[in-house]
Amino acid sequence: MIVPVILAGGSGTRLWPLSRDMYPKQLIKIINEKTMLQETLIRLSGLEDMGNPMVICNDNHRFIVAEQLREIEITAESILLEPVGRNTAPALAVAALRMLSQGLNPLLLVLPADHIIRDVSVFHEALSSGESFAKADYLITFGIVPEIAETGYGYIRKGDRLSDPEDREVVKIAEFIEKPDKKNAEAYVKSGLFCWNSGMFMFKASQAIEELKKYAPEIVEACEKALHSGKKDLDFFRLDAEAFEICPNESIDYALMEKTGKGAILPLKAGWDDLGSWAALWKVGEKNQNGNVIQGDVLTYDVKNSYLKATHRMIAAVGLENYIVIETSDAVLISPIDRVQEVKQLVDQLKSDKRSEAFSHRKACRPGDAYEGINMPSVGTENRL
C-alpha cells in the first residue's frame, strides 16, 4: 500500500499579499476552483493501492484543511497538527513513525501541497516506476527535468544509472546543490546532468526511519516523544508541543537525502511547477495577446507580459511591461517580475514591525465564516485603445 503524506504546513510568503500565515497559498484557489491542497489530492485519484492520505499542517489551519478534504469527499488517514514549524524532515519522521506504530510499513509518497502538474498521466507512470524502486529499499526523489536555467530551485546532480530490467532512467544521487546563480544554472541545464529538486519523495516507512536513525537520530527521538505524548482531538492528532519544539529544524534533503547511500533520482517531465512566486503564476497562467495574465476587474493600456490580479477594487495600469500588480482588500503589491523572489523581504519587514497584514486578511477564517481575502472576481477585462 502507498500512503500519501501531504505536507501542508508552509506559509507561502512569496505569494503575499494573497498568501499569508493564517491562510497560505496551499489553502487558496490560485489556478482554478480547487485549492492547491485539493488539487494535490485529486491528482492521485485512479491510482491502485493508494491509501487514505496523511495530511500534516499547522494547528491554526486544522479546520480549513478538514473542510477542504470534506468538500472533495476524501477521508484522511489522519491530520497531524504541528505546534510549530520544523521543516520537512521532522514531518516525514512523524508520518513514518505513526505508520510503524500501527504495525504498518507502507510506501510513503511525500508530496508538498503547493505544486501543479499538468500531465497527470506521466506523473502516474513515474509513481509506478518509483514504487518498484522504493520496494527495493531505495529512497526515491522525483527530480524535475529542467526546461530553463531557473535560479529559484535547488538542483540535484545525477550519478550512476541503476540497473533495471525495464530500462527506466533511475540514477543515484550524486550531489544536492543550493539555488545557483544564473551562470551556474545555465551550465547545469546545458550539461543534462542535473534535475530540479521537486521535494517529492517515495520510500518505505521503515527504510526512512532506519536511515534517519543513522544520520539524524535526534530528529527521530524528538518525533517519537512528540507522537507518544501527543493527543487525539476530534479528527486531528496533536503532536506534543514540548517534545516537537526541541526537534531540529531540518529539511529532508539536508537531514537524509544528501547523506544516505540509498538515495536515487527518478527524472520527471510532467509539466511541474511549485508556484513559489508570482513569476511562476505568470508563467503557467493563461495569457492574452499582449502576454498578460489578468484576473479580476483590471483595465490596462499599453501593458505587456505582466500579471495583474484584483480582488476588491479595479486596477488601472498604463505602460507596464514585465510587472506584477496584486490588489487585496488591505494591501497592494507592485514589483518587476524578475524581482518577485524579494517579496519575502517585505513580509519579513512587516513581521518585524508586527503589522497584521503579514499574518492575516481583514477577516479571520473559521468554519462557516466568509473569508474576504480570497473572495475574488473571476473575469478580467483589458482595454487596448
Task: Note down, in words, how this protein is organized.
The protein has 385 residues and is an alpha/beta fold. 28% of the residues lie in helices and 25% in strands. It has eleven helices and 19 strands. Helix 3 crosses helix 6 and helix 3 crosses helix 7.
Strand order of the largest sheet: 6-9-7-8-12
By DSSP, the count of extended strands is: 19
Estimated share of beta-strand residues? 15-25%
Order of helices and strands, N to C?
Answer: EHEHEHEEHEEEHEHHEEHHEEHEEEEEEH
Profile the largest sheet: 5 strands, mixed, barrel
**Terminus-to-terminus distance:** 59 Å
Using only C-alpha atoms, the radius of gyration works out to 21 Å
- Compute the average pLDDT: 90
Query: What class, by secondary structure content?
Result: alpha/beta
Sum up the overall morphology in one term.
globular
Total helical segments: 11
Low-confidence stretches: 364-385
Helix content: 25-40%
Short descriptors:
385 residues; alpha/beta; five-stranded mixed β-barrel; four-stranded mixed sheet; 11 helices; 19 strands; 25% strand; globular
List the helices and strands and how they pair.
Elements: E1 2-8, H1 36-42, E2 54-58, H2 62-71, E3 78-82, H3 88-101, E4 107-112, E5 116-117, H4 120-135, E6 139-144, E7 155-161, E8 171-177, H5 182-191, E9 194-204, H6 205-215, H7 217-228, E10 231-233, E11 236-238, H8 241-245, H9 252-257, E12 263-268, E13 272-273, H10 278-284, E14 293-295, E15 298-301, E16 307-310, E17 315-318, E18 323-327, E19 332-336, H11 343-352
Parallel strand pairs: 1-2, 1-4, 2-3, 3-11, 6-12, 14-16, 15-17, 16-18
Antiparallel strand pairs: 4-9, 5-13, 6-9, 7-8, 7-9, 8-12, 10-11, 18-19
